[in-house]
Design goal:
Elements: H1 2-7, H2 10-41, E1 74-76, E2 78-80, H3 88-91, E3 94-101, H4 104-116, E4 122-126, E5 131-138, H5 141-151, E6 159-163
Parallel strand pairs: 1-6
Antiparallel strand pairs: 2-4, 3-5, 3-6, 4-5
Length: about 160
């Protein structure tokens, strides 16, 4: 075969060489590139260990003497704001404040929203003319703190207020 190739006329040799060259390139592409594409396309889309059995969560026991940090309660003198009639606020010691405003209108708007939700809020004003929206009042510190913590998912800045004597 090689001898036959060498006996062709030069113009036929270059044409045959070019034809063989194209065929060789196609074979090389199929032989090298195709397996690489297959390897990449067959790769798993799940991270390793995703199907491993879940391990039970072991909770550590609470310490025998837990440290109780008492929250700082703000103390200030206040009175019911104009047009406010929730007298219960004045009779209790601890008040859960969910809003503090320089504008009485803003405090009344929050109070109206809470009333629509079935709550019994009150608006009070302190000596600095800051309007506080109180959502609940208690004589027991623990109850007031529990309600404050419960409300912090909605009112992140909720805090406790005590009437100054």
């Amino acid at each position: 075969m090689w001898q036959e190739f060498c006996n062709f006329a030069p113009e036929k040799q270059s044409m045959l060489f070019n034809k063989n060259s194209i065929i060789m390139k196609k074979i090389l592409f199929v032989a090298l590139i195709s397996p690489a594409i297959l390897v990449v396309s067959c790769k798993t889309t799940h991270p390793a260990g995703i199907y491993e059995k879940a391990q039970p969560v072991v909770q550590k026991p609470a310490p025998a003497n837990p440290v109780v940090v008492k929250e700082v309660v703000r103390t200030e003198s206040f009175k019911l704001a104009a047009n406010e009639n929730n007298q219960e606020v004045i009779t209790k010691k601890y008040h859960v404040v969910v809003g503090s405003f320089a504008s009485q209108l803003n405090a009344q708007n929050l109070s109206a929203t809470l009333k629509k939700e079935g709550k019994n809020p009150a608006v009070v004003v302190n000596e600095s003319n800051m309007y506080r929206v109180i959502i609940a009042s208690y004589d027991d510190y623990a109850q007031a703190t529990a309600v404050k913590v419960e409300l912090q998912s909605r009112f992140a800045d909720a805090w406790l207020l005590v009437q100054a004597k």
